[in-house]
Amino acid sequence: ACNLAPLMRQALDTADCDIAGIDAFTSTFGPGLSCSLLIGNVVAKALAVTAKRPYARPSTKERRIPIRLQQ
Fold first, then answer.
1. Which residue, 2, 13, 29, 35, is most buried by CB atoms nearer than 10 A?
2. DSSP conformational letter for 19
3. Could you tell me which residues come within 8 angstroms of residue 44 by beta carbon, excluding any fewer than 6 positions away?
4. d(CA 67, CA 34)
5. DSSP 70
6. How far apart (Å, rounded) are the C-alpha atoms in residues 6 and 8?
7. What is the pLDDT of residue 60?
8. Which of helix, strand or coil describes residue 58?
9. 3-state SS assignment for residue 64
């Protein structure tokens, strides 16, 4: 988890974007390692709430997005 903030900053810099430029946030709930999935879900949902943007949580088995947008 300690590498998450620098990784997010690098991804935003590479995309020439900031949090305000993101329309919606998403994370997956499986399959995968439960701790990693939990961290991803918590961070994505917190970013969505903070930025007042929609949040979607599709399964990695589902192929269509957006799926189940939650506000």
1. 29
2. G
3. 25, 26, 27, 55, 57
4. 21
5. B
6. 5
7. 62
8. coil
9. coil
- Measured in Å, how far apart are the chain's first and last C-alpha atoms? 25
Q: Which residue intervals of 4-67 are DSSP H helices?
A: 4-14, 34-51
* Each residue's pLDDT tens digit, 15-69: 999 888 899 998 877 777 888 888 888 999 999 999 999 998 776 665 555 555 5
Question: 8 is written with which tokens?
Answer: 């997010």
CA distance 18 to 48: 13
Does residue 25 contact residue 48 with C-beta atoms inside 8 Å? yes
The count of residues in the chain is 71
Comparing C-alpha atoms, which of 32, 10, 12 is closest to residue 21?
12
> Residue type at 65?
I
